[in-house]
Design goal:
Number of domains: 2
Distance between the termini: 47 Å
Strand content: 15-25%
Order of helices and strands: HEEHEEHEEEEEHHEHHEH
Shape: globular
Largest sheet: 5 strands, antiparallel
Helix content: 25-40%
Structural class: alpha+beta
Radius of gyration: 19 Å
Number of strands: 11
């Protein structure tokens, strides 16, 4: 059960978070032994040219050793690849308030990480049937889902705040509860716009951004900004644009942006007209 953040220390099965690069290597190998695929991160972005292959195969121990001994471009964190291969889904709550909401309404997890920026990650098992993909801003809160096609920054990664990601709970002896997609079932963005007549310009904008793909480290920010501007220019409000861009984010952004990042990009697109 999640409670007010208190990082664990000396808990059975926990990981030493204090040795920087060597600690990252130790943690990465621990996750690999759990059967989780992983990638090195620089900030929140992959520090390797392409990470998609690690959605379909685990890195080997030599790759992990090379990543976390790179003195020229040392990684600052570990990205645990979510989805079918690793068998996990991560619920990313942006604040303690969102984490309180989640913990009061959904099953608790024996694996809970504190992000260093006030957020909380809850780990769940990927269901054997069906597919859980990335979602942002679910249940009208700043709660993101990292599933197939995504990754979650894991302890002891560095956070932009200067603090580290830490395990608040790391019970390796308890089976992860299975994530249920029904927990976050919502209507698609177009149905959320049912109060507005979807004129040709709006439909054309939705079709247009469907051809835009944002890839981290390859102009992903500019691509997302262009999509946001296209929705703005179609006459949509900030709220309507964000609803549509959130759906686009689930399928066209790799890795997907967080709800906060998407909201910032929408605001930037509208502010650029001033």
């Amino acid at each position: 059960m999640w409670s007010k953040p208190k990082p664990i220390e000396n808990q059975r099965g926990s990981i030493d978070h204090d040795d920087c690069l060597s600690s990252l290597a130790v943690s990465a190998n621990e996750y690999l032994r759990r059967g989780w695929s992983l990638i090195p991160l620089l900030g929140k972005q992959p520090s390797i040219p392409s990470w998609k292959e690690y959605q379909t195969r685990l890195p080997d121990s030599n790759e992990v050793a090379a990543w976390f001994s790179n003195a020229v471009r040392p990684p600052s964190g570990i990205g645990v690849v979510t989805g079918r291969l690793s068998g996990i889904v991560v619920v990313d709550c942006d604040s303690e308030g969102d984490a309180d909401f989640w913990s009061k309404n959904f099953p608790s997890s024996p694996l809970v990480a504190l992000t260093g920026g006030g957020g909380v990650h809850f780990y769940y098992a990927m269901p054997e049937e069906g597919e859980v993909r990335n979602r942002t801003g679910v249940l009208k809160r700043k709660v993101d889902i990292r599933g197939e096609g995504g990754y979650a920054t894991a302890p002891p990664s560095g956070h932009p705040s200067g603090r580290k990601y830490l395990w608040q709970a790391y019970d390796t002896n308890t089976i992860l509860p299975c994530f249920d997609a029904a927990w976050i079932a919502e209507k698609a963005s177009e149905s959320r716009l049912r109060g507005r007549k979807l004129v040709g310009s709006v439909r054309n904008a939705i079709a247009y951004i469907g051809k835009i793909h944002a890839i981290g480290g390859e102009g992903g920010h500019n691509a997302t900004f262009r999509a946001a501007c296209k929705l703005r220019d179609a006459g949509l409000s900030k709220e309507e644009s964000l609803a549509i861009l959130s759906d686009w984010n689930e399928t066209n952004a790799s890795p997907p942006w967080s709800a906060k990042e998407l909201e910032h990009k929408i605001c930037s697109a509208f502010d650029s007209l001033r």
